[in-house]
């Protein structure tokens, strides 16, 4: 009587190195994504978010910020728990999206009398968003209305919690990636690029 075949255990899958083409396309998306978002911010009709449609504006603002927060947390989780050196490139695109959402909210609020002093244009709104995010605060644009102050406080908290966590994760992953490349022999890198 033949003996039963030995149990076979599936081999754990080894994480595959991303191809050079995949890395370049991801880097292109990371660099192009924020540019596209800013171009859309300056070209799309944003009047729908003004004082004529406050419920719609607040709904979109809340929904978009929640969506960006969830996606940022997912990307942070994937970057931290994924293969070593995974760069988490979507973090930059999501951070730029959060900035555009806040700039749009500031622009909509500026159309209400008494909300902002010094904020008149889309560029003013984007400038104020970046200045608030960086905590510089030159004082040339100031929130005076209660709604404007609430949105500024939300942006500061959002930046401290989500965008800082995302930037820290992306920076950590970049350092790991650079350290791996500096240790890796040049011949091995050349061999991987050519596929030998």
Descriptive report:
With 196 residues, the protein is an all-alpha fold. The chain has a single domain (46-194), classed as Helix Hairpins, CATH 1.10.287.70. The chain is 67% helix and 2% strand. It has a two-stranded antiparallel ribbon. The longest helix is centred in the C-terminal third of the chain and has 38 residues, at 146-183. It is elongated, with a radius of gyration of 23 Å.
What key phrases describe this protein's structure?
6 helices; mainly alpha; single chain; Helix Hairpins; two-stranded antiparallel sheet; 67% helix; 196 residues
Q: What characterizes the major β-sheet?
A: 2 strands, antiparallel
Give the number of helices.
Answer: 6
Tell me the total number of β-strands.
2
Share of helix, binned: 55-70%
Order of helices and strands: HHHEHEHH
**Structurally, how many domains make up the residues?**
1
CATH T-level topology: Helix Hairpins
Helix/sheet category: mainly alpha
- Ends distance: 47 Å
Radius of gyration: 23 Å
Q: Categorize the overall geometry.
A: elongated
CATH architecture: Orthogonal Bundle
- Please state the average pLDDT score: 82
- Could you name the CATH class? Mainly Alpha
Compact overview of the structure:
It contains six helices and two strands, in the order αααβαβαα. With 196 residues, the protein is an all-alpha fold.
What's the arrangement of secondary structure elements?
Elements: H1 20-43, H2 54-81, H3 90-110, E1 116-117, H4 122-133, E2 142-143, H5 146-183, H6 186-194
Antiparallel strand pairs: 1-2
Helix pairs in contact: 1-3, 2-3, 2-5, 3-4, 3-5
